[in-house]
Design a protein that fits this description.
The protein is an alpha+beta fold and about 180 residues long. It has a 6-stranded antiparallel beta sheet with strand order 3-4-5-1-2-6. Helix 2 packs antiparallel against helix 3 and helix 2 packs across helix 5.
Length: about 180
């Protein structure tokens, strides 16, 4: 079994009192937290209790802001991939799924990924939320503004690893509706 990052949507944030009542599945990605997940969880980011695990390894973020950032970056990446039908299909599938599962918050579940390093998972998530996600957002914002062409070219060259995650209504960890 692969270790995965999981992305969900909810209308409230998980907190010490419990998890949100309605959780919608967005995406899962094997062996990494891809750029798409980082951007989707990159606006209004806060560390929250996990929906799945006991340690404090969840990240909640503004759904609308993260979705808009990803859409803008996909448009910038697409300017160099106009003839790539697979990229166009990936973008269309992702946009349709994000629209269908719309909520107030994204909830990024990182437990399986941060546990692979052997470091303290909660500390790793704090680092992810305070440094890694903001860095990814800053890189994407600069690329969208036309000020980060080298980074944009590297993302474009390896777009599958950044954007071609498994988007579905049911993930390995799903919640009753």
């Amino acid at each position: 079994m692969a270790n995965r990052s999981y992305l969900y949507a909810a209308d409230s944030m998980p907190n010490e009192a419990g998890i949100p009542q309605r959780i919608r599945c967005i995406s899962e990605h094997n062996w990494d937290i891809p750029l798409a997940h980082k951007l989707l969880a990159g606006r209004g980011t806060t560390v929250v209790p996990s929906l799945i695990w006991n340690p404090l390894v969840g990240i909640a973020a503004d759904y609308a802001g993260g979705a808009a950032l990803l859409r803008d970056l996909l448009a910038a990446v697409g300017k160099g991939l106009e003839d790539d039908a697979d990229f166009a299909e990936c973008v269309a599938r992702t946009a349709a799924h994000l629209e269908k599962q719309r909520a107030k918050y994204f909830v990024l579940e990182t437990g399986e990924i941060v546990s692979m390093s052997g470091d303290d998972p909660a500390a790793s998530v704090r680092q992810l939320a305070s440094a890694d996600l903001p860095e990814a957002v800053a890189q994407a914002e600069a690329a969208i503004a036309g000020q980060n062409d080298e980074w944009l070219a590297s993302v474009r060259a390896d777009w599958q690893s950044h954007f071609a995650s498994f988007y579905s209504d049911a993930l390995y960890f799903s919640f009753p509706g």
